[in-house]
Amino acid sequence: ALHGVVALDGPSGTGKTTVARTLAARLGAGYLDTGAMYRLVTLAVLRAGVDPADATAVAELARRVEIGVGTSPELPRALLAGEDVGEEIRTEPVNRAVSAVSAVPEVRALLVASQRSIIAQVLEGTGGIVVEGRDIGTTVAPDAPLKVFLTASEEVRAARRSAQDTAAGRESSPDEARESVVRRDRLDSTRAASPLRAADDAVVFDTSELKIDQVIVALSELASQRG
Ligand code: C5P
Predict the structure, then answer these.
(1) Which of 12, 65, 117, 188 is most exposed by smallest CB count within 10 Å?
(2) Site residues for ligand 1, CB cut-off 6 Å
(3) Is 10 marked as binding a ligand?
(4) In angstroms, what is the span from residue 35 Cα to ligand 1's centroid?
(5) ipTM of this model?
(6) Is 137 flagged in the annotation as binding?
(7) β partners of residue 79
(8) How far is the CA of 1 from the centre of ligand 1 (A)?
(9) Where is this region: Disordered (predicted)?
(10) How far are the Cα atoms of 45, 49, 104, 220 from residue 56, in angstroms, in the given order?
(11) Percent of all residues in the chain with a pLDDT value above 90, rounded to a whole number
């Protein structure tokens, strides 16, 4: 079993979610999808008719919204005021607005505090947790014994996103998926507040050529050595 935190960061379309959930299930650990938390706040912003670019209004709303995420790798749940919105938070309007919302420092401060408290709770219970996001190794859990950063070429990431959308019954063309993925990663990497970047001590895997299964096998080994 895993002890401690595995921090799993990287841009979209690198296989991060599949790797994180599979690894957590194999290791009998908990799982935290921090992206889902930013998506939940974003959905609340859109539903309230707040302009995602209005940082003051976004921060004010973020203080009031009630979001919840499950920590089971088999069934990760995303709740907004008790309503299951697991599908709605993956739709294109949320994809378009989430980078603006997650760039607001107050939003990050609120969610990072909440992520740390969820992590502490899970560590007390099962003893291990795989946490996926953009700033886990750099900000949320800088002391994690294992930090992983996944990358992949633009082509591969766009193709994975498009395949995911199609599998989930959402309309998607490779060109649109590429534009959406590239735009979001550019915004996430260039924002001032804890931008997407690999921690200095992260193990970097390029998943363009590697099969996701190979990444999972390699990480299971690393986790059992370091966890
Ligand atoms: O991982 P996912 O693609 O669901 O994340 C959605 C968005 O949430 C990212 O594009 C990024 O803007 C934001 N995010 C973040 N920090 C995290 C996780 C996600 O800023 N730790």
Answers:
(1) 117
(2) 12, 34-35, 38-39, 98-99, 102, 133-135, 184, 188
(3) yes
(4) 4
(5) 0.99
(6) no
(7) 68, 84
(8) 27
(9) 160-186
(10) 12, 14, 9, 42
(11) 80
Residue 12, annotated as binding a ligand: yes
- Position 199 scores a pLDDT of 96
- By CB atoms closer than 10 A (0-12, 13-18, 19+), residue 190 is exposed
User: Which distant-in-sequence residues (6+ apart) come within 8 Å of 7 by Cβ?
Assistant: 131, 136, 137, 140, 141, 144, 146, 147, 148, 199, 202
Please tell me whether residue 227 adopts helix, strand or coil conformation.
coil
The one-character DSSP state at 88 is: G
**Tokens 């690999």, residue?**
198
Best residue for ligand 1 mutational test, from 102, 194, 197 (most atoms within 8 Å of Cβ): 102
Has residue 139 got a pLDDT over 70?
yes
Nearest one of 107, 88, 67, 90 to 17, comparing CA atoms: 90
Examine the pLDDT at 100 and tell me if it is beyond 80. Answer: yes
pLDDT confidence band for 74 (50 / 70 / 90): very high
Mean pLDDT of the chain: 94
> What is the distance in A from the centroid of ligand 1 to the CA of 166?
21
Nearest CA to ligand 1 atom 1: 35
For the cut 80, the answer to whether the pLDDT of residue 227 exceeds it is: no
CA of 157 to the centre of ligand 1 (A): 15
Task: Flag whether 195 is marked binding.
Answer: no
